[in-house]
Automatic annotation (TrEMBL):
Pfam families: RTC (PF01137), RTC_insert (PF05189). It is found in: Nucleus, Nucleolus. As part of the small subunit (SSU) processome, it plays a role in 40S-ribosomal-subunit biogenesis in the early pre-rRNA processing steps at sites A0, A1 and A2 that are required for proper maturation of the 18S RNA. Activates BMS1 by promoting GDP/GTP exchange. Does not have cyclase activity. InterPro entries: RNA3'-term_phos_cycl_insert, RNA3'_phos_cyclase_dom, RNA3'_phos_cyclase_dom_sf, RNA3'_term_phos_cyc, RNA3'_term_phos_cyc_type_2, RNA3'_term_phos_cycl-like_CS, RNA3'P_cycl/enolpyr_Trfase_a/b, RPTC_insert. GO terms for cellular component: nucleolus. Its main location: nucleus. Part of the small subunit (SSU) processome, composed of more than 70 proteins and the RNA chaperone small nucleolar RNA (snoRNA) U3. Interacts with BMS1. The keyword Membrane does not apply. One of its GO terms (molecular function) is RNA endonuclease activity. It comes from Pipistrellus kuhlii. Gene3D superfamilies: RNA 3'-terminal phosphate cyclase domain, RNA 3'-terminal phosphate cyclase, insert domain. The keyword Nucleus applies. This is RNA 3'-terminal phosphate cyclase-like protein. Residues 10-325 form the RNA 3'-terminal phosphate cyclase domain.
Length: 337
């Protein structure tokens, strides 16, 4: 059980995941009140309850109390234990919603973590597993978290609303993080990507590749976009397609962008050509923003810098995302309510 400490108090559902992650790392209990108290459907959502269950699985001795309406949560973190875990994620959010937090916690477990996550691998809300694999894992390696046991593998793809995807994430443990000095992102040397399609024609992926290349070929010749068409049980429960792109610089910086088709039965149909062109433009925008870490992983890099040696690490970032701004504020001023 974590050492008893003064409980931090918050109100509202915003950044609930970030608060629970920082509580687990610091060992300080948190109490969160008025969670959607004025909403027609008050209290915690299914995906938030699923995330709390995941925290309970990877820790030992956590104490979790939720009132009858679900509008008040008390969380006293236990010890980060790790080991082999399986978890069925809520299909209301992507696996990336859970994976982002696991990336923050996994290096500090008592035992190396190996977790199987099932649910939606690619959606329009959370970072996809593809983007986290190509951009977040290199950030971990910069801090000395590497080796053969660092792996993120997509076994099955799952698109919303049905899900049905499965990924395996394993991470070694580290007692000390390596300081970083990332101040020069360097020039782009190559672009790689993955065009995927499930339960639709395989030609969809090829059309996405052609349209994305029509934009990117104007800027750099070294472009290769793979196609991934999964069939049968590996294709999940719902149809869909999408594209994830990553640009690598000469100094080892990875900048990512992605787009996914609208879920079945929601919104207007998206043409593969439009999706490919728009995703290429998003990647160019990410490159224009600059920085040694892309906007998806800014908060991850800042968190590891905070947990490392004081006043040693340095990183150059582009414009901060709203999520990053809050994450940095929480790390610097945890007692502010």
């Amino acid at each position: 059980m974590a050492t008893p400490a003064h409980s931090l108090s918050y109100a509202g559902c915003n950044f609930l995941r970030q608060r629970l992650v920082l509580s687990t790392l610091s060992g300080r209990p948190v109490k969160i009140r008025k969670i959607r108290a004025r909403d027609d459907n008050p209290g915690l959502r299914d995906f938030e309850a699923s995330f709390i269950r995941l925290l309970d699985k990877i820790t030992n001795g956590s104490r979790i109390e939720i009132n009858q309406t679900g509008t008040t949560l008390y969380y006293q973190p236990g010890l980060l234990y790790g080991g082999s875990v399986e978890h069925d994620c809520s299909v209301l959010r992507g696996i990336g919603y859970y994976l982002e937090s696991l990336l923050c916690l996994a290096p500090f477990m008592k035992h190396p973590l190996r977790i199987v996550l099932r649910g939606v691998t690619n959606d329009q809300v959370d970072p996809s597993v593809d983007v986290l694999k190509t951009t977040a894992l290199p950030v971990l390696k910069q801090f000395g978290i590497d080796g053969e046991s660092l792996e993120l593998k997509i076994v099955r793809r799952g698109m919303p609303p049905g899900g049905g995807g499965e990924v395996i994430f394993s991470c070694p443990i580290r007692k000390v993080l390596k300081p970083i000095q990332l101040t020069d992102p360097g020039k782009i040397k190559r672009i790689r990507g993955m065009a995927y399609s499930v339960r639709v024609s395989p030609q969809m992926a090829n059309r996405i590749v052609d349209s994305a290349r029509s934009i990117l070929n104007k800027f750099i010749p070294d472009i290769y976009i793979y196609t991934d068409h999964m069939k049968g049980i590996n294709s999940g429960k719902s149809p869909g397609f999408g594209l994830s792109l990553v640009a690598e610089t000469i100094n080892g910086t990875f900048l990512g962008a992605e787009l996914t088709s609208n879920p079945q039965g929601q919104g207007v149909a998206v043409l593969p050509e439009d999706l490919g062109r728009n995703c290429a433009k998003l990647l160019l925008e990410e490159i224009y923003r600059g920085g040694c870490v892309d906007s998806t992983n800014q908060s991850l890099a800042l968190l590891f810098m905070t947990l490392g040696q004081q006043d040693v690490s340095k990183v150059l970032l582009g414009p901060l995302s709203p999520y990053t701004i809050f994450a940095a504020f929480e790390e610097l001023f945890p007692d502010y309510v």
